[in-house]
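Annual report, structural modelling task.

Input specification for the NAP complex:
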Amino acid sequence: MSETPRVAIVTGAARGIGAATARRLAAEGHSVAVIDLKEADAQNTVDQISADGGTAVALGADVSDTDQVTAAVDQVAERLGPPTILVNNAGVIRDNLLFKMTEDDWDTVMGVHLRGSFLMSRAAQAHMTSAGWGRIVCLSSSSAQGNRGQANYSAAKAGLQGFTKTLSIELGKFGVTANAVAPGFIVTDMTKATAARIGMDFEEFKKATADSIPVRRPGKPEDIAATIAFLTSEEAGFVSGQVIYVAGGPLD
Ligand code: NAP
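The model returned the following structure:
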């Protein structure tokens, strides 16, 4: 089924899962606002989308900052039209065992994942409810079920599941769905950083992790982008308030 062209926002889309998602949504025919902390980094993804024949703009914004979020969403509406697809993907890790975790480690992770998804969703929903159509996808994680060294991150990712379910309840009557995608191990700079933190070579880390995954391979950013493409599609209109684990095996 071919998609009605929409305006999509993907946060944290300079690299990793966000970049793959922005490219995939552009390939579906949507105009994509690529948001990341630095506009120059976001521009790399925009250049790839343009080379593929798609339409995209780069915007620099910190999703945890109210004024920057408001300005970015206004800019998207002005330059591309009202955004009706939002992917809350921007993320950071500040891993540490609880006894070593600082307040800053905690606040930074909550700020980007939870406050960032809240601010972006609040700003974008105005356009979606006016249009009577919208799709919101939040990036949760298999770490929502608990993960050593990630008290902050697992709390934020579990929090995003409750946040997403509530959005689905509040916004459903306006034609807006909200779902969470919870990836398992995906090969990106974020998992590279995790390997470095535990002092493991990344290739060995990938192999060791793959051995514990039923499909026997680590995930790729494109695996997550494909799931998000479905959840933001026309035909996914009756799927809302769900958490979909994309982890190469069963998690719930
Ligand atoms: P990544 O490669 O580290 O990319 C994250 C992007 O978010 C970076 O470009 C980063 O910019 C940007 N970002 C960070 N803070 C931001 C802020 N305040 N405002 C705007 N952008 C910001 O991460 P990834 O692995 O692709 O992960 C993407 C999402 O999936 C995250 O929410 C992550 O928690 C989730 N996830 C990933 C995995 C995995 O295995 N990789 C598994 C489960 C869930 P800078 O580079 O400038 O910091």
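The radius of gyration is 17 Å.
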